[in-house]
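**User:** My hope is that you can spare some time for a protein that puzzles me. I have put the entry right below:
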Amino acid sequence: MVHTCRNCKRTFDTELELELHQDTCSDAQLFCRKCGTRFAERRATRDGWHYACPTDDCDGEGIGEDLLRVRDALTVAR
């Protein structure tokens, strides 16, 4: 079975390889508009549906609301 990164579309032979890749996938990076922190997508969710900034004192949440994908934040900034 092939495992595909939903952000960059790279494929991996095992689920473990995919999970390790997701920690460093630059396309998976999120940016919080409230606190300015950049972090891996998997740090912001436990269930894959609800997202919140992992910074302790920040209440930013929701992709497209307070949280933007870095590639989208760069597009908005230009």
Observations:
- The chain has a mean pLDDT of 84.
- The beta strands are 3-4, 11-12, 29-32, 38-40, 67-69.
- The longest strand covers residues 29-32.
- The helical segments are 15-22, 70-77.
